[in-house]
Amino acid sequence: MSDLTLQQLKALRFWQTPEITSLNRMPAHTPLHSYRSFTDAATGELSASRRSLDGTWQFEWFPSPNEVPDDWLTSEAKGNRIRVPGNWQLQGYDKPIYTNVKYPFSATPPIVPEDNPTGCYRRSFWLDESDLVDHTRVVFDGVDSAFFVWCNGHLVGYSQDSRLPAEFDISRSLRAGDNDLAVMVLRLCDGSYLEDQDMWNLSGIYRSVYLLSKPKTHISDVRATATLDQYYAEGVLEVEVMCSQACRGEVELALNDASGATVLSHRQGIGTDLIDERGRYKDRARVKLKVPSVLAWSAETPNLYRLVVSFFDAHGQFVECETSDIGFRSVEITDGQLLLNGKPLLIRGVNKHEHHPETGHTESLAQVEADIRLMKRHNFNALRCSHYPHQPGFYDLCDRLGMYVVDEANIETHGLTPMSLVSDDDAWSHAYVERMSRMVRRDFNHPSVIIWSLGNESGYGGNHEAMAAWVRKADPSRPIQYEGGGADTSVTDIICPMYARVVDDMPSPYGRPAYSIQHWADLQAELGERARPVILCEYAHAMGNSLGNFSDYWDAFRANPRLQGGFIWDWVDQGLTQVSDEGVPYFAYGGDFGDEINDRQFCINGLVFPDRTPHPSLFEAKRAQQPFTFTAESCDRSIILTVTSEYLFRATDNERLNWRLGSLRDTHHEGSQVLEIGPEGTQTIVIDNHGDLIAASEQALLLDAWITTERVTNVLPAGHEIARSQHVLALAEGRVERETRPADISQHGEQLLVTAGDVSWHFNAATGFITDWTTDGRALLDAPMADCFVRAPLDNDICSSEVDNPSPEAWLAKWQASGLFDLEHRCTGVEVKDATVISQHEYLSDAGVAISSVWTHIFDADGGVDIDIEVSVEPEMPPLPRVGMRLLLSDKPEVVSWLGRGPHENYPDRKLSADLGDWSCDRQAMQTPYIFPSDNGLRCDVRQAVIGAVCIERLDGDFAFAVSDYGVESLMRAEHTFECIEQSALHVHIDGYHMGVGGDDSWTPSVRPEYLVNAETYRWGCRLSVAHDDKA
Questions:
Q1: Cα(607)–Cα(528) distance, rounded to whole angstroms?
Q2: Which of 3.90.1150.10, 2.60.40.10, 1.25.40.10, 2.30.38.10 is the CATH number of 219-312?
Q3: Alpha-carbon distance 740 to 860, whole Å?
Q4: Alpha-carbon span 574 to 594, nearest angstrom
Q5: Catalytic residues, which ones?
Q6: What value does the mean pLDDT take over residues 536-552?
């Protein structure tokens, strides 16, 4: 094959033959380094045997492999320069394509289109004569999607599977001096049918490339199983060392702790015990050793040991070392629970794609480490590699920083009909099993990997059964999960549904309903010893303004031992950095690159923006998942605060409890103390409440408790807040009564003039609304006040996972069908009595009156107005987004202040993390610039808000409010935030009622009934007045 011409090779069409997944590719193994001294291996220095080929390569792009010139390999390298690693679509060639389900090409497996963009890479590297003594291989950590490699004009090999390394022995093709490496990468291959993940379709050499030199006879693999004994006290270390060929020699194992001290060493010859009547292996050594007093690994205590394996030849001469950082831990499923080191885990997980807004699928390890640190600071302890193995360094970071990992095979066939089309086809069995086995072989030694996954959304078939059978034989130390086929097939050790609701079963087109997590738990309870743990592989779809109902999941997880958490979808908005024609940078999504097949913004569903700025939903996840729970109880003249630790393996040796007792505005008593709680333990603190102190101004008594770190840890800074809780011990309700005289009112035709000192109000009897409000001659309003019943639709309101398949059950569809956005207003009457003005309003759709409202304005001599509003909604109307009023203020203050929930954005079904308090915030920060514009910035349970010269106060009940530089109409028209047209006026929404955001998923209506605005009558109100210093 090495003598085939490029023309002959193209004619073979390897890339659409599923039985051919590689040519001359070396077997998979754990990462190798070939240290040439024990000291280098023990200290973890970069191995001199590795030589990076990352950097600038020559590059030519062709629309099809057929158009690559037949003399490309033999002609002088030419073309432009390109960065490796990197995706060529983000370096000026071809275009990115985003789809969720559908393939970005006509799907007729295994055939791919003739129009198949192809990238041709060339670079040279220099070798001395002495370099030719060793065995040398070239390692590609990741190439999307299929590629051929030549060295000095000789065909080295072929590989597909975009997410695992491919290694080729190039020793025979090398020469002293300049060497030429050529790579032809195809955007599509038959393997693309197995790579239909919900992400950008990008191509190229996007992970690192390097040369690895090893001795002629060398260590070819080191496989270590590090577990704990049955008492979880001593370590059990099983190691298999593979050599490149049968040989006479010895291996020496040294196990070093974190300080570098050797805690165990062992030396033995190559060769195993008798295997069968034909003999024994002569190319490997197997060792099983006890390790006393071992420090166990967990996400809480990521204790690592360095295993150094030294190879000596038959003469006792040192040859090389290989290393692996290992952690001792045992993963089991017992009595229907997933156990780590004998303790049931609670998975605080998130799905993570490899994504960077500027480099696409190429992530630097610095970025990965920053991501993991950010996750840990928001109380995540687990990651699901969605939906493919990540780069090798990712697992090292998870080992070191402490994250549980579900390692997932690079298999998804979501766009096939049926999904199982190739999953049950024997012609594809080799590809399926190979993708699984190569991942397991690469990542075997990582303690962070606690679960293997067979892939994602690929239906169910015999190929999955073959994968599971291979894994169970190769690695019985870890369980398997797979959601396809109903989440409970025989191949999965864990019930791992997607987007199951907490208590409600949902209709499903596949026969049985989509069970709730409570239903799943009940089913497992009936199975006794055959019960399996329930862990959601995906839940809480964090698309845009989302993650409503999230705390309900965590209440259920804590209440039911078999519900062991889940993985939020997902970590980062997959936006790509672009610059508009006007020079404004923005984050692009599907369709922004002229990609005609796309699913628009469905890739924008992370807890953080592409630049890793948190969404407000990240704070909700942090609070719900925090590893401490709190209860508070008033008892005589004291408050009993109880803190319970959910740490499984460590005591609180670095945590301090802080507390504050006071009103919304003022602190009356505070303190702190070191926490001394053992694993899963409880501590009680008695706080003197100083005779039931209640602040007279707000009639409120709040206890805030929070836990911080005292010292820097491996992931957390000193003073970091781990957990927080607020306990409302007293909070006055009911109408706020005021003693005041009525204002003066006069009528001039359809205009009413209300005056109170230097404050005046103009009321239009024709429209029934206040049109002007002035103080000291300064106008406060830019437009009349008005009812508001709409919001700029959220992604969860739109309910579409595929752009050409919108849901007729979506809230947006129902609002549009009812004419909600186009209601015609008319004032049906105005009544004036003393300083009270009552106006009646109707809002008409094509079917007649849809909504009516009655506004009662009571103007007083202090310059304020109490506005009571009664709203009636016709039964035919769908639930409303909001019941409130809209103000357009003339001035845009720099700072907004309020008494209510904050400081960050919160909504009725997402406010666990937003505490009651006295908050102030920069006006811009009051708004959340979601990539796809939608309603944002709400603050709930507000008693008072001060926006420049305007003060808003509660009457009978609290209100919610939001301020924005953009109107609802501007947000609805724009497809990206930068397209929103900022107005000179400030848009202020004051809501008596506001619908939740939902978030169980984003393609069905997911707002729970208690958070719907679906009554037929509402009453609410607020007081408006000019703000003074005592209100700010």
A1: 37
A2: 2.60.40.10
A3: 6
A4: 17
A5: 457, 538
A6: 98
